[in-house]
Structures are given as structure tokens and as C-alpha cells.
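Ligand-bound model needed. inosinic acid.
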Amino acid sequence: MSLTAHPDIKEVLLPQKKIQQRIRELGSEITSDYAGKCPTLVGVLKGCVMFLPDLLKNISIDCSVDFICLSSYSGTYSTGIVRILLDLRENIQGRDVLIVEDIVDSGLTLGYLFENLRTRRPRSLEICTLLDKPDCRKVHIPIKYTGFTVPDRFVVGYGLDYHEIYRNLPYVGVLKKSVPGYPGPCRTARTKKQRAGSF
Ligand code: IMP
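Prediction:
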């Protein structure tokens, strides 16, 4: 465990060097899997803000980039009701599409996105996620490329936020429980009060 300068981080789970090394591996895997094609990378905002540019730098075939912004959380809990806040600019029909996500937690958000993009009839549709938190999965998600599998802890940094803060940390760290409103494990596990209708 390495200590970090940020007072709200309990532990650095993935240091910058380790992330960059893994992204280099992912980039060459994608480069060889898509050789002879020109994939469209779809970055899911805002969590992809660090991962997507670093991944792009390690892909050495022609590709295009587009973005989509979704909202499925009420506070810090996944509701499964997803809204598209910003849609793709490009038509992806007949394209080889690779969704680039920061983290798959319950899978509800990505499950919706995957089905939505599938109806637009791309030639192929795959998922690349930096982090996978399988302990919290509610729906099966066909992930093709995974950076790291992480335990059920609330992580921030390298694009991941808590209330829009910490995205700029160059590493992935575990948020301290003492941070006000700490989200806790499996954010889809609703409390009695939440089930009673506060969202
Ligand atoms: P899901 O629908 O539960 O899979 O949630 C997906 C989205 O929730 C991700 O794209 C993240 O933006 C956010 N999220 C899930 N887990 C974490 C976490 O541990 N830290 C920060 N954001 C998270």
C-alpha cells in the first residue's frame, strides 16, 4: 500500500505506473484485434476523461472517437433508469464500435448503453473498461477488455469521481470512509429508507 498526498484517500489501489503499463497492453491487444478495421471508440463521459486519451495513444491503427454521456444515478445509487444526456455525433451503423468505460459496477448503466447502441446496428460492439467490480454485478455484461478487477470498495481518481471531485488524481485510490456521505459497498444495495421511496 502506498500513501498519498490527498487527505481523503485511504490507500492507492492502482499507482500511475501500473495503470499506464496495463493501458499499453490493452492498446496493443486492441491494435491487433482490430487490424485492418477502423473502429469507433465511444467514450462514456465523464469517467473516461483520463482513460480514453491514454488508451488512444497506445492504439496504432486508424480509429475514430465519439462520446456519450449518461446519467443513471440518484445521489450515489444506480437506479437502472438511464438517461442519455449527450448522444453520439456519428452514425455507428456498420461500424466496429468499442465502448470505453471507467468502471463497471452493477452493470445497469452499461447494460442499457449496450442494448441502445446495438439497436443502431453497428457491425460489432464490444466493451473496454478500465475497472471491473464484479462483486456488485446485477446484470451480465459482456466485457471484452478489462484493465483491472477491483474489490467492492468505492474508488476515485484517474477519471473516477465522488460528487465530481478527485477525477484529476493520477492514480486510483480508495476513498476514506470518513468523507461525508461515503457511498459504501455495492451502491445498488438500497437501504430500507431508500426502498421506502426516497428515489
Ligand atoms: P453501474 O451502473 O452501477 O455499473 O455504474 C456505472 C457508473 O457508476 C460508472 O460509470 C461510474 O461513473 C460510477 N461508479 C460505479 N462505481 C464507482 C466507484 O467505485 N467510484 C466512482 N464511480 C463509480
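The CA atoms of residues 105 and 134 lie 7 Å apart.
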